[in-house]
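Task card 7
Instruction: Convert sequence to structure tokens.
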Amino acid sequence: MSAKNSIVVSGLLLAGCAVRAPEIPMRSFTAGDIGVAAAKARQEVDKGPPENLALMLNILAQCEQMLGDQDAAWRHFEVAGQIMGNWQTSGSETFNAVVGSESSKTYKGDPYEKAMNAFYAGVHYLWRGEPDNARACFKRGILADAELGEDKFRADFTLLYWLAGRASSLMGKQSEADDFYREAKEADEFARAHGSRGDGEQRILGDPGAGNLVLLVECGMGPVKYGDGGQEELARFRPGDTTVSRAQVTVGGRDVGSTVPLVDLYYQASTMGGTEMEGIRKGKAVLKSVTTVSGVVLLDMAAHDSGKGARDKAIAGGALLLLGLLTSTAADVRHWATLPDTVQVLTLDVPPGDHDLHLAFFDRNGAHLGALDQDWKVSVPEGSESFYLFRSLPGLDRIVPTASEPAAAPTEKKLP
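Output:
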């Protein structure tokens, strides 16, 4: 048997063996029981299918971040990002993805998931005092947001442009920061024109470099990916829990304003460059239908053919029928389920030193979601700025702080 035929046979035999979507204890996660979710993610990283490694590393890193283990979170976001950025696949893996379930491929994430991995990694570099590496991460996320396979789309991930501008300012490159800020405004206007929630009042983007205290607040739960269509060949998204609309912030007992969305993840998941995207696998559905029907036709012709071509028709028809029967059209519905619905921002000018911070969360109707209230101690160093990251989950302020301020200057370490 030739190597080529061996690959084909192997693909056929493995066609029905899709990588399972990992079960994440989402009830525990949304209830603020981060340790439970972290333990499950760690188990999947250690013993689960290697094809799910990047997905589980991202979830584990999120949990570690909220539990206060920033070094572990940074390492795991970095490793996950390396896997997600590697688009090289073997010939057999590519074949299995066409013939078998799409989830037989290594999980590398949709563009919005790649962008969020870059966001988290970049924030960690800011906390490590490396704005150059942070900016490299944000730029990497911007590129990921605009790419789907070999196709290119308009990047509209406002948050990453804005953060790249803040990182540029920390590097002392104000002209480059201004360019990123301009692109952030254009991305926000474009995204909002196509249905995204954003900074319509220009409260952040109107003065993008303002403030020495930067609050990044993740609200709600992100989009859910599911299979749809007659053969579940379409990967579609529905909104997650969008109950949390904003956070109202109090510093030192004084109301200082509410957060503004800079990225809407349901919009990002369901569109590419403003164009609705369903993750369509219609090509595979067509492949299944055509090969099955063609196989039946050829077998019927062979049964009624007494000539020399009957055997060849029977072999070809049987092969096509087998291929059609073994072809799975099911879309890959693995997704990063622990992402937020929106990432929102508020920037403040406060005196250097420690401050008492209170977060109160509200729904779309203005009702106070008191169970999510959080109290924190934040600090701003003299002559610099601080970045803090929060999540609208109950009880996180009773675990450990999940944020810190950057050092004054970058280190020499560079991203590859």
